[in-house]
User: Which sequence fits this backbone?
């Protein structure tokens, strides 16, 4: 790893730590419990995939009103995380396609970059 | 052997339901997730006027359910979990009546029902893993560990923030003590928890009677046999004397 990359990585870690500390302090200040969401999960994608998909709990919990049971344990397990997502399944209204149906949330059939562009 | 347990801190709980979901998954319990605990939903989080309270088996140190089960289906393991063997259960529901916390639930929808309740993820604990509910809790409201350490942690939290917590560790002495301990910011009775439970293990109440039964059976049996022997002897003597009187002289 060259010096610039190491410096960038260091900055990213510092920013993440500052954000975590900020969240903890803000939480402590308003008396609410500190919620530690699971880390982002990256799905590399099958051959021919336009790119990896990074799933973020942060961007999803707001839509479930903070209720983990909205997505767990079905369709997504917690202890042995569900894998093997396919577009065929999602397009048929299963897995991510349960919400990403074009009505509740953006459809899995539209805008590849939205999911495969590195964010979710 | 170390005795494990849980420390549930109501003030750190958001009621997200991760514990319920993790429990369902770890124990292969069928969906849906019900609002209250059932034979298939072993833990839920209740919202009582904004305060949260988990409902789950308290895993008594000396469980009443174990003491009353006529077929030995329930067992308090040395590690802490109170487990049960569904294949032994005859569905008598005596444990449901006996539990001071109202925990065991019945499979009312089955033709041959048994009870269901939290088993403190005994299988995971035996492998050295924490319970599923503690593993997935995103706020640390449910903490898994050795009971002694959890008791110290609970007292430390109360001492560090006496204005936040009610000065009581629920489960420390209730019904003789439980493996699940609880902290709260509001009185426990307002969260639907029983606070009038005796500090001694409830099985002691029946043990005082049951422990005397073997002696009672032996002594009472001996008494009855003695009465029988005396009565029989009297009849024999009476018959003998009557026969003697009727003998020609």
Assistant:
């Amino acid at each position: 790893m060259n010096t610039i990359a190491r410096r960038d990585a260091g900055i990213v870690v510092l920013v993440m730590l500052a954000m975590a500390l900020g969240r903890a302090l803000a939480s402590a200040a308003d008396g609410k419990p500190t919620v530690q969401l699971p880390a982002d999960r990256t799905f590399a994608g099958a051959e021919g995939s336009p790119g990896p998909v990074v799933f973020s709990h942060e961007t999803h919990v707001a839509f479930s009103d903070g209720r983990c049971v909205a997505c767990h344990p079905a369709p997504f397990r917690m202890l042995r995380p569900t894998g093997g997502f396919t577009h065929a399944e999602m397009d048929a209204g299963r897995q991510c396609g349960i919400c990403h149906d074009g009505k509740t949330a953006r459809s899995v059939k539209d805008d590849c970059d939205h999911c495969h562009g590195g964010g979710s | 052997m170390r005795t494990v347990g849980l420390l549930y801190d109501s003030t750190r709980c958001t009621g997200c339901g991760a514990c319920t979901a993790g429990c369902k998954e770890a124990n292969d319990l069928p969906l849906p997730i019900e609002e209250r605990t059932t034979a298939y939903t072993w833990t839920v989080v209740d919202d009582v006027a904004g305060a949260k309270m988990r409902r789950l088996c308290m895993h008594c140190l000396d469980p009443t359910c174990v003491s009353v089960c006529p077929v030995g289906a329930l067992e308090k393991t040395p590690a802490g979990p109170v487990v049960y063997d569904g294949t032994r259960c005859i569905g008598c529901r005596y444990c449901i009546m006996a539990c001071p916390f109202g925990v065991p639930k019945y499979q009312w929808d089955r033709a041959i029902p048994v009870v269901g309740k939290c088993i403190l993820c005994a299988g995971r604990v035996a492998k050295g893993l924490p319970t599923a509910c503690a593993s997935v809790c995103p706020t640390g409201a449910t903490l898994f560990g050795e009971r002694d350490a959890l008791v110290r942690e609970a007292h430390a939290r109360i001492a560090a923030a006496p204005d936040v917590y009610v000065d009581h560790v629920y489960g420390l002495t209730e019904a003789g003590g439980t493996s699940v301990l609880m902290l709260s910011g509001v009185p426990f009775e307002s969260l639907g928890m029983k606070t009038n439970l005796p500090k001694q293990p409830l099985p002691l109440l029946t043990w005082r009677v049951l422990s005397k039964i073997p002696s009672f059976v032996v002594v009472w049996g001996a008494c009855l046999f003695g009465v029988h022997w005396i009565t029989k002897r009297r009849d024999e003597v009476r018959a003998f004397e009557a026969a003697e009187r009727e003998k020609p002289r």
About this structure: DSSP finds four helices and two strands in chain A. The first strand of chain A starts at residue 41 and ends at 43. Helices of chain A lie at 3-30, 57-61, 87-91, 112-116. Strands of chain A lie at 41-43, 53-55.
